[in-house]
Structures are given as structure tokens and as C-alpha cells.
Amino acid sequence: MAEYKKLTNGLRIVSEQIPVVKSVAIGFWIRAGVVTESESNNGISHFIEHMLFKGTESRSAREIAEMVDGVGGHINAFTSREYTCYYMKVLDENLSMAVELLADMLFNSRFDPEEIEKEKSVIGEEISMYEDSPEDLAHDLLIENMFRHHPLGYSILGQSDSIESLTRDAMLAYMKNHYRPEDTVISVAGNFDPAYLDELLHRYFYDWKGAPSTEKKTLTTPTLCFGEISRAKDIEQIHLNIGYQGAVLGSSEMFDLLVINNIIGGTMSSRLFQSIREEKGLVYSIYSSMHNYTSNGVFTLYCSMNPGQLTAVRELIDSELEELMKTGFTADEFEKARKQLKGSYLLGMESTSGRMAAMGKSELLLNRIDTPDMILKKINELEQTNAERVMRQYMHPDQKMAVLVGRVS
């Protein structure tokens, strides 16, 4: 059973005790991501994420790594469009070490000027790596162009010029504005003593006082852009990514689209995978996926193929979707997709990391904890006729963005 507490400084703590395991996962979820950036400082959230691993006043970067490796633990972080997460997974006996280390990184990171300059080169290489990965590039270009006039469309990594212009003072000012207790959720799942966890979190976070933010901005709901763009790359395959209107995070339509995703391209038994790869042999990779945000969403179809197969593949995709729009799903495939959704969700919840992430993201972005029972209830209540209505409403053939990467004319 998930527990919720809120400290007087606004910091929210969500936790779930799982006594049958020997591990504990803890994550710091902070409302700082691409949507809190500007064009001039684009990439700063991701850069700060890197810098928190570069040493504190009492520990070097190597000592941080050795401390975690020494107990067989795992530490990492990631930046998304709407938040940044720092997390650890350790044996339950090492919980105090994990809390203290994450607090040290959050409050006492040095932001050494020499390390900042070195990291600019590292992130520059990361940007080049994604540019050299046509699949990643096709996804990034799709989101960038569908949210063309909105911060959701900014690059998570940033642009080369915005990264090069970042300074230590700019990063510290950004942290002061966005790394605040009222914009943070600490999520914990695993084997721990609740009273001891409370004592640890009060020790390190009760006196955390966030400065009043001077950069809070109200984001408008993004209007999606549609059309077609291409990026020329001298590579062997053409990479096609098609985006449609998606669902808002946590909405009832999101659950309908999750089932639709399984039917269309989310699994190996899906319509597009079976038709275009297994039966026709025209592609190696083909799948659909979802990107859900608090203000909007995108449903995507991705595939890669020999350039000579592009026309045939696009015609087959259009034909499959047109047939779905006309006839809807069969009762059997809808029920199978629902069972797939339930199974994959429950398997993900078997790990302490999965439970920690589900609670932390839900509380940070939706201000609620969607328990497994609540999620399963929503899945069980899905109706085929309503899912078909959502599909026809969201996946309109004239409202899509297509991105092509490869040898395009």
C-alpha cells in the first residue's frame, strides 16, 4: 500500500513497503525538464543532471561511483521533457547510504568550471551520437516538428550553441529556480522500516528551503503541427516515423490508446508487424509507441527499410489503418491486447525500481498515486467500442506528421 507524506517545505514523499524483497529503490523526481527551459538555455536540465555526478564538496566523481559499486548498487539519472529523475537501487541494509549520497549530490555538487568545460565536449559527443543514429534522429525530429512552436519540441540534449554558452552561474541559477522542495517528489519502494525512512528523510530534507522562483512560466497547451519533412543521410536504409495526435498523460483516452498500440504495432503479434514484416518481409524493424505528456501526446509508427520498399510500405501502413478505421477490431484481438497490457504492467510492477518509478512520476506530474489496483480497474473497464472511437478521433489520416531520414530526394 502506497503511503503519502508532505513536509512543511512542500516536499512530497511517496513510499511502498515490500517486505518480501531484499532491495530498496529510491528516486528524486524534480519538475525540471525541457518544458522549463528556453531556446537560449536549451539542454541545461540534462547538463545539470550530468554535473551532479561530477563530485561534491566531500566526494569526487570516482568516489561516488566506487561508493555505489562497493555495495553492489546501481545509481543513474535521466532527463525527460517534463522532469529529471535521480535514482538508486541498493540492498535494504544500504538505504541510509543511498539517501545520504543522493542528498549530498543534490545539495553539495561542486560544478567545477573545468569539469563543466570538459562535460560540454562529452555532451557534444552525445549529440553527435544521436545524430548518427537514424532511428533516434527520426524520433527526435518527429517530436521537434509536431511541437514546433512549443517547449515540448526542444531537444532534451540541447543544441550545440546553447550548450556551449552555458555557464556555472546559469546552472546554479536554474537549480535555484527549479530544484525546490515543492517541485520535488522522493519515491521509495522496497524493504525498509517506515519509521527509519522517515527519520532519514527528515534528517536530510526537513530544513531544505527553496528560494522563490523567478522563472515560473505558464505553459500553453501545444497545438500539434502536421505535414512531412525529410533529413538527408547517406545511409543504407530509409527510416520512416509517423506521428498522430496522442493522449494526455493519465487520461482515460491514454488507456484506450495503450490497447490500440498493442493491436497496431506495439507487439510482435500486432497487425503491422505481422503484415509488413512477417508476411511481406519488407522491413526488419516496425513498431508503434506512445509519448504522453501533461498537456498533450503523440502516437507514433516507426519502421526502417530499403529505399526501394518505401512506397510499398507506406501503402501497406495506410491500407491497414484504413481497414481498421472502417471495420474496427475483432473482439478476440481487443481482448488479447487488453491481456497483453495487464500482463506487461504487472510484470513491470514486480521490481522495486518499477514501483518506485510509477509512484514518483504519477505524484510529480499528476499529483496523485495511481495504485496497481486502480490501473487494473481502468484496464478492465476498457470497452472496444470506445477504443475504436478514440482511434478514429486521434488517428485521422489527414492529421499526421511524417519524418523521413536517409537517402531522400
Give a short synopsis of this structure.
This protein is α+β, with helices and mostly antiparallel strands. The chain has helices at residues 44-51, 61-69, 95-108, 113-131, 134-146, 160-164, 168-178, 194-205, 252-264, 271-279, 310-327, 331-348, 352-366, 372-380, 384-394, and strands spanning 2-6, 12-17, 23-30, 74-79, 84-91, 184-190, 227-232, 238-245, 285-292, 297-305, 400-406. It has a six-stranded mixed beta sheet with strand order 1-2-6-3-5-4, sandwiched between helices. Strands 7-11-8-10-9 form a five-stranded mixed beta sheet, with helices on both faces.
List keywords for this structure.
409 residues; Cytochrome Bc1 Complex, Chain A, domain 1; six-stranded mixed β-sheet; five-stranded mixed β-sheet; 15 helices
Proportion of beta-strand residues: 15-25%
Shape type: globular
* Distance N to C terminus: 57 Å
How many extended strands? 11
Do you know the CATH topology of the largest domain? Cytochrome Bc1 Complex, Chain A, domain 1
If strands are numbered along the chain, what order do they take across the biggest sheet?
1-2-6-3-5-4
Family: Belongs to the peptidase M16 family.
Domain Peptidase M16 N-terminal: 12-158
Pfam families: Peptidase_M16, Peptidase_M16_C
Domain Peptidase M16 C-terminal: 165-341
Explained architecture:
- The protein has 409 residues and is an alpha+beta fold.
- It has two domains: 204 residues, Metalloenzyme, LuxS/M16 peptidase-like (Cytochrome Bc1 Complex, Chain A, domain 1, 2-Layer Sandwich); 180 residues, Metalloenzyme, LuxS/M16 peptidase-like (Cytochrome Bc1 Complex, Chain A, domain 1, 2-Layer Sandwich), CATH 3.30.830.10.
- Helices cover 45% and strands 19% of the residues.
- It contains 15 helices and eleven strands.
- The chain has a six-stranded mixed sheet, with helices on both faces. The protein has a five-stranded mixed sheet with strand order 7-11-8-10-9, with helices on both faces.
- Strand 4 and strand 5 form a beta hairpin.
- Helix 9 crosses helix 12.
- The chain is globular.
